[in-house]
Structure prediction request, 279 residues.
Amino acid sequence: MLNQKTVQQITLFNKDDLSNWLSDPGLTENHIYEFKAEFYSGNDNNEECRKDFSAFANYLGGFIFIGIDDSKNICGENVNEINKLLNDKLKPLGRSLEWSVFKTIDLGNRKYVYVIAIEEVCHYWEKPLISDSIIHVRGNACVNTISSIGDVQNSFDFKRFTPSDIRYFEELLSSREDILEKWSTTADVIPIHYARIFAHCEAFLESELKNAASVETKRALINVIDSFKSWCGSFGITEIRSSGITQSAELSPQGSKSDEIKVKLKDFIEKFNKIFNYE
Prediction:
């Protein structure tokens, strides 16, 4: 979540306030601030735009100042319909990305500094946003690229995994008619962040099994885990936690195979809902 004190400070900026703020020698581009002299004009810069925005959203959120160069010089920009242009460029990242041009600072002579606020993606099951098949995370004045399952595990906090989160994810899967044919990022593949959630779902169930108090609960959990593994096994991703998958797991079920997977998914959801009292 963006620091509200910082948000309030920037909201009140005028040209002089901005100059004074930038004159602070301790102020630099970091994991919160990015300075760009020019707007992401043209289709050639669409990928860079999505990279910058997704990197902030995948970390703690942040601010992009358009019209300020890397040396903190105010150069200004003039962009017609900036909201529409950004919306078109960022549409592939999906509705989980929240941003706004929340401050436009008038420099005079039809020049402006546009301050764009990007919110962190708050629900970890929606993380990470994938930009052009690549995962980016904001670092200290840079953008880091994630290329392996291990990097995902190290870069994102999956400790808040609860039954209700699994419930949400399974409902998301089961509610989509085309879930077995087209996933949300690239057609016919399981994105790396879904693979990560599958792994944590299994880890969560196994943890519950270890801590189960009664024999009846243990038996029920074993049935849930077996059902889950059967479903994942249909995709060939049963060893996801130690597999070293670097991009995505292939998914291309056809015909009767697709129907078989749907049955297994339904079976898992029903068993899971029953043992965790979801109706």
